[in-house]
Amino acid sequence: MDKQITIEPYNINWHKEFVEEKKKFVALLKKEIIAIEHIGSTSIKGLDAKPIIDMMIGVKNLNLVDRWIEPLQTIGYEYVFHKHFPQRRFFRKGKWRAGTHHLHVYTYGGQEWKNNLLFRDFMRNHEWVHIEYRQLKQGLAMKYPFDRVSYTNAKEPFIQKIIALAKENLYI
User: Fold this and answer.
1) Which residues sit opposite 126 in a β-bridge?
2) Residue 139 CB coordination number (10 Å)
3) How many Cα atoms occupy the beta-carbon half-sphere of 98 within 13 Å?
4) CA 77, 81, 85, 89: dihedral to nearest 10 degrees?
5) Which one of 44, 61, 115, 130 has the minimum C-beta count within 10 Å?
6) Domain spanning 13-168: which CATH class is it, in words?
């Protein structure tokens, strides 16, 4: 059974954890990284979130990520293959369905990269979105308390709506 989904009040330590992980990635992967970003709800100051630090690394070519599997294991990250997401590589720190850190790797400047930044930056600059998203997440956590897949899938229409709004407003 999955760990219960809990939504916690914003914690300033989430940003500090991101900074610490970023240092590890830079030391380990050096010049293969174009950019590293803190994404997801823990990157939005004041937003309640599941206490999972989502990060993304931008690279020139996703094929080079195959070389990262062993080095990232030395700092606690496990590669998780997802056939449904060919434009992303994913690593998890922590137990299955109870991870503490998620690392998403995308082609730098690709649509997935841009969409993550659009969503994050729009959320950072529009308080009304915080309120709606917080309410949605709290409701979904009650509806799917032990089902992360359903919880995540149910958030997707809202996320896509915000990305579309950000694009309409040329919020890049």
Assistant:
1) none
2) 12
3) 6
4) 40
5) 61
6) alpha beta
- Give the pLDDT confidence of 6-49 residue by residue, as tens digits: 999 999 999 999 999 999 999 999 889 999 999 999 999 999 99
Alpha carbon distance 154, 158 (integer Å): 8
DSSP bridge pairs for 172: none
Residue that the structure tokens 């293959």 belong to: 81
Q: Which residues pair with 53 in a beta bridge?
A: 101
Q: How far apart are the first and last CA of the chain?
A: 40
pLDDT of amino acid 98: 59
Q: Is 67 helix (H, G, I), strand (E, B) or coil?
A: helix
Cα–Cα distance, 68 to 147 (Å, whole number): 29
Judge whether 171 and 122 are in contact, CB under 8 Å: yes
CA distance 57 to 59: 7
Give the tokens for residue 159.
């996320």
Q: Please choose, from the candidates 155, 51, 56, the residue with its C-alpha nearest in 3D space to the C-alpha of residue 99.
A: 51
Q: Return mean pLDDT, the chain.
A: 92
